[in-house]
Every structure is written in structure tokens, then in C-alpha cells.
Request: fold
Amino acid sequence: MCQTTGGASIEEVINKFNLSIMTEYRRPYIPGATWFFTVNLAERKGNRLLVDKIDILREVFAETQKKHPFRMDAVVVLPDHLHCIWTLPENDADFSTRWNMLKGAFSKRIEKGEPISVSRQYRRERGIWQRRFWEHCIRDQLDYNKHVDYIHWNPVKHQWVKHVQDWPHSSYHRYVKEGIYPINWGDIIPPEIDGIELE
Ligand code: NI
Reply:
């Protein structure tokens, strides 16, 4: 399903990125079934809709998951976009159905009034979310770890908080509770994600 890059051994990669301390993850990725997503609101400037309506967002995630199961490995909700990692059931790569359902159910519960483009008016679409989203098939355990850390570092990256632990809307807190991260994780930028740009 997703291509492996081959070539460099884990040791080579670790040396290259100076990853002296590796975090022990308890939910190993599953080849071909684990995906990273970035999903944006249509209007990002000054828009806090996702955190203002976090309860609705939680509801629609749960409803979608009930109808079309997936494992949520990591998630962060920022005011104007979100990132997450899902693992889909075997032989099921249909993340598009899940995102359409989730985005549609969320929009339906938000009062109308957002600016809507002509093409969307024509199709009777709402203007809450960007139509496109970014997906990336996780290649291996190192790629998985990197994306999990990217997610949890994101509130600091976007300068919403100074410390990872001060942002409530992420799975970071679950990771600490489960003993996966030490409490001071993220006091400095994790070296393996330095310079990565996935929004
Ligand atoms: Ni981001």
C-alpha cells in the first residue's frame, strides 16, 4: 500500500538525526494501515472554531469511529486545524469516507454564517473546512514515532503555548499518563522533528 524507502538502516537514521534517546511507543504502527493527517479550516486567520466547539468535535469523532472504526493513535486540535494519526482496520484504506462524515457532521452542528465561495454555494456546500486534507502513509516505526512527536509538539510550534503540557487538546496527556513520555518531554524541541513542516 504505502512505499517503503529502503536504504538506510535504523542505526544510520538515528546517527544522522542524532536520536540518542528514543521514546518507547506502546502502540506499534501497522504496515499499510497507519496514516497521518492534517485537516484545516477554510478560514484560518483568527478562527478558533475547533477549540471553541471542541465538544462537538469530540462527538463527531466518536460517532464516525462507531460507524467506521479506526484507532486514534495520536491527535492534536489547534484552533484552526488538527493533526492526527489513525490506524485503519485490515484491508480498509477508506479514510476519505471517514473524513467526509466527520467534517459533514461537524459543519451541520455549527450555525450558518461563514463566508461561502461561489462554487460551494453552487454545490450547496458549507464553508467550514478546506476541501482537501493532507494524508501521509506511515512507512515504519521511526516514521510513526516522528509523526507522533510532531503532533504533540504542534501547539508549541504554532506558538499557542510555551510548554507542550499547557495545551489541553492533545493526546500528549494520555501518553504521559501511560508512562510513554517523561513529564518534561518537549521542554526542548525533539531533535527528530526539528525542521519538519507538515503545518
Ligand atoms: Ni499544525
Observations:
- Strands lie at 34-40, 71-77, 81-87, 134-137.
- The mean pLDDT is 86.
- Residues 19 and 198 are 20 Å apart (CA to CA).
- The first strand starts at residue 34 and ends at 40.
